[in-house]
Amino acid sequence: MSSVSQELKDTSVASSKWLDAHYDPVANLYTFSSCIALSDLHGDGENKLVVGDLGTGVCHMKLKVYRGTGLLSESTLLDLPTGLVSFLMDLHEPRTPAIAVASGPFIYVYKNLRPYFKFTLPSLEVNPLELDVWSQAREDMIDPMTLKEMLEGLRDKAEIPLSVRSLRFLMLEPQEMESFVHLYKEQPIRRQTVITCIGTLKKNMADDDAVSCLVIGTENGDVYILDPEAFTILYKMSLPSTATLMDVTGQFDVEFRITVACRNGNIYILRRDSPKPKYCIELSSHPVGLVRMGKNVVVGCTDETLHGYTQKGKKLWTAYLPAPVTTMALMDLPTRGFQAVLVGLANCEVHMYRDKNLISTIKTPDVVTSICFGRYGREDGTLIMTTKGGGLIVKILKRTAVFDDRDSAPGPPIAQSIRLNVPKKTKLYVDQTLRERENAVAMHRAFQMDLSRLRLAAARAYVKALESSLAPMSASLTEPLKMNAVVQGLGPSFKLTLNIQNTAASRPVMNLAISFLYDESLYSMRTAFFKIPLLVPGLNYPIDTFVECLSDKGISDIIKVFVLREGKSAPLLTAHINMPVSEGLALN
Amino acid sequence: MEVSVSMDPLFLAWSCCRRRQLQRSADICSKILSESPFDQESGGAQVSEAAWSLKTRALTEMVFVDEVEVDQEGIAEMMLDESSIAQVARPGTSLRLLGTSQGGAPTPAVRPMTQSGRPVTGFVRPSTLTGRPETMEQAIRTPRTASSARPGTSASGRLVRLGTASMLTHPDGPFINLSRINLAKYAKRPNMAKTLFEYIFLHENDVKNALELAAVATEHAQFRDWWWKVQLGKCYYRLGLLREAEKQFRSALAQQEFVDSYLYLAKVYQRLDQPITALNVFKQGLDHFPTEVTLLTGIARIHEEMNNVISATEYYREVLKQDNTHVEAIACIGSNHFYTDQPEIALRFYRRLLQMGVFNCQLYNNLGLCCFYAQQYDMTLSSFERALALASSDEEQADVWYNLGHVAVGIGDLTLAYQCFKLALAFNNNHGEAYNNLAVLELRKGRIEQAKAFLQTAAALSPHMYEPHFNFATLSEKVGDLQSSFTAAQRSEDAFPEHVDTQQILKNLRLHFATL
């Protein structure tokens, strides 16, 4: 243990740009960067950390608020949170921001940490054919199996996708269908989409404390902008695919730009006055993180790369990362005019990039899953990270920290200057080559003669092995079999496992039997002959049997296993098992 | 049984014993003892005592095995080891941690691994075979024969097969009935006690009684006889009481510097998995006995087991300077040269062994391989032929056929190679390497199902090899089964992390998985 702590200390000294404010490895906080925000919830000038905790993914979903190092409050969420933002909804004094938590088709708005409003996404148009089918089911005109067939037909052809209820129905086992139909047939059918990401957009002023609208992306590829007070839909845009990551800039009344990374691996840029995307960036692999830095967009992809694009979709640079990206966040220090991208990696590191240059690396004790940088408490440069194991790390940027922007353009690779350790050719070798040169003909003749003899010897031995089927794989084309035997146990009882496999491409093998040949004074077997089931090609059939060793002299023998075809005495294949010494009796 | 009349029978027996006619010596002693039983208080007590002592010696000599060399960690010691604290030892401090190569050694791509995950050595000795199985399943799987890395229990294992005669029953009962013997009485007579101890320890393999005798005797000698301390240490070692053994050997060494004691002490440390301490013990021994061959060999072996082949070779060279007929050193240096791309030098070393009178299948096998790779083709196949003729077991035959298969692949005769690998498998059903190579040949013939089955078998038979996994990964990638390819490549990476081709496959696959 001592060595481990030593190592940690070393790295923390080396990267002395950060103060380790707090580390709780068992904070029980499981979340992602989209569900974490810093906000002055009470208007007292002190920022709190608001986290939508995913819990186990099934239960214990919570909205947690931290102040300093302690948990301030905790309230239960009904469903998994997909996004969490803090925003100012009105101009009332005191200016306390609200928290919006997106989960499922709803947005729960909290004010002063109390539930304030619930927004529901408008329901979508239901396929009329589907409605028709369900109404027939309601009147018991069709049985569940017909219903299933008709819905399957609809699913494959119709332009409007099926509702969740129909999809769920199609997943069920036949015996469960009846009760499902019975339970739900009376209820009206609805098609609801869910929220996949959420962001905020200033309404009409660029100030920090200006009123903001909510921007949400949904599963069916729409983007809505909501009015902050009335929660009505101000504007609707649609995308070709589902939005997964979102970044918003500008003001709603003036000009705005929404950058959306979608599930089809494209990034779309939406602007005011156009309900369709303006620009499109096609990535080579799926995006994992999206951060806007000034006028550029930085995207981390699953193929361990980081790309920089202009806001018109022109590619600027690519940086190659040492490990897969887990999360990304913006590090913005307006007081010092410093901006960088924080990239959490799967090798327990957080890299800080400014443009394509790596300017700093933070080692973490666990894989970081969410990063948030901003003002926490009264400290401006605070970095908050949560880890895969549920830990919480808080670091404070030192005021003396300077990040020098060195260009990391690589020179020639280091391997170029390493000399290969090629053994020198010895004098002996030279002498031997001389001998070879002088006696080439004689050597060649001798070798060829030996080779012919060897071929003959090998062929003889091979034929002998084939004739008596000594090999553990069968040579016949009709029954290509393979067997290997494993003995387990210390004795005097042993377990013999015969692994038999049919190596044909498609033909099964049947009517096979196994028999054993052994010294009956040494071993006894419960069943020395049994039949093998039909062998399906490509599968391994382990067949077990038990052997009892009768001798206590510490000697062992070979047991031969034959695989036989019914009605033929010559075996198809043979395996020899070198039995281990029985140790059970020798112990006494 | 003819006994010369003119000579004193006891002297004759002694002479026979010296000439290693042990059975005859024992018979003569039996005769003397039957004429004057030594329990009786008579005039011939001295003679019968001497005869009794001589007989024990003769019987012991018959089954004598050097205790230093016998080492077999039993299955219980391996799997139920309570003292294994550091699961991940630092590189270079443990014999159990595999694959911590300390630079310079050839990679598994060049020098094959043994089942215990170390590079193959040039010389088979008990400790080169003991690997540490990771699971109980692996530990109890066959084959636990002498040529495999599977441990036996210490109750049977080699100790029983080599060192004792007690397993085989005597027609007229044992020579000494241990249950009836009064150990305290013998302990008071040091000259008889020592032969009796060796008889009990080696012939009867009864460590508990031997320990009791040694304990009484050392007490009688007022703890001043180093010999008894060494014997006590041996008994403790056999019983697995390693710390007690260490104490006894250290105490014996403090009294009397002796090469054997150093060897035993180092053995204790090796069993305790403290190779560095063992090396220090050897070096202390070398201070007192400079250029002692056994100590130098011990150092070389430890270096070799820790994958530090370069230092091992240095020490083996040192051994050869002192004793230029040391078979182990010659064989190890030879194999090292072979695997560092200098087969012509290896050939020299193996020829030296041949000149020294080593005449067996393995040597001819190695000679054949060296000749082939040193391009001395005229001698290659005749060496293999002799190796085949000399092969005494099926395993040896299998190995020779396997190597012939390699030669056949080398000259491009794939039919011959196919036959050779199949023959190797016919002789040894558990030859994982042959399965792997056969799979590659099957793949070239386009029989993918067969190749797959063989590769799976190879991987199951020899989990230490990376080749079957790698081949499976390439095969699966070719047929488009990327998921299987990925898992196989990961297993290959586990077995041989530095393998560049595996890394390449993994990289390609990752790229493939990431792209849209």
From TrEMBL, chain A:
The keyword Transport appears for this protein: yes
Subcellular location: Cell projection, Cilium membrane; Cytoplasm, Cytoskeleton, Microtubule organizing center, Centrosome, Centriolar satellite
InterPro entries for this protein: BBS1, BBS1_N, GAE_BBS1, Quinoprotein_ADH-like_sf, WD40/YVTN_repeat-like_dom_sf
Record keywords: Acetylation, Cell membrane, Cell projection, Cilium, Cilium biogenesis/degradation, Cytoplasm, Cytoskeleton, Membrane, Olfaction, Protein transport, Sensory transduction, Transport, Vision
GO process terms (BP): non-motile cilium assembly; protein localization to cilium; protein transport; retina homeostasis; sensory perception of smell; visual perception
GO CC term (a single one): BBSome
Domain Bardet-Biedl syndrome 1 N-terminal: 18-271
PANTHER family: BARDET-BIEDL SYNDROME 1 PROTEIN
Complexes and interactors: Part of BBSome complex, that contains BBS1, BBS2, BBS4, BBS5, BBS7, BBS8/TTC8, BBS9 and BBIP10. Interacts with the C-terminus of RAB3IP. Interacts with CCDC28B and ALDOB. Interacts with PKD1.
Protein name listed in UniProt: BBSome complex member BBS1
Organism in which the protein naturally occurs: Phoxinus phoxinus
Classification of source organism: Eukaryota, Metazoa, Chordata, Craniata, Vertebrata
UniProtKB/TrEMBL annotation, chain B:
Pfam families noted in UniProt: TPR_8
Lineage top rank: taxon: Eukaryota
Signal peptide: none
Biased composition (Polar residues): 144-155
GO CC terms of this entry: BBSome; ciliary basal body; non-motile cilium
Record's keyword terms, sorted: TPR repeat
Annotated PANTHER family: TETRATRICOPEPTIDE REPEAT PROTEIN 8
Protein name: Tetratricopeptide repeat domain 8
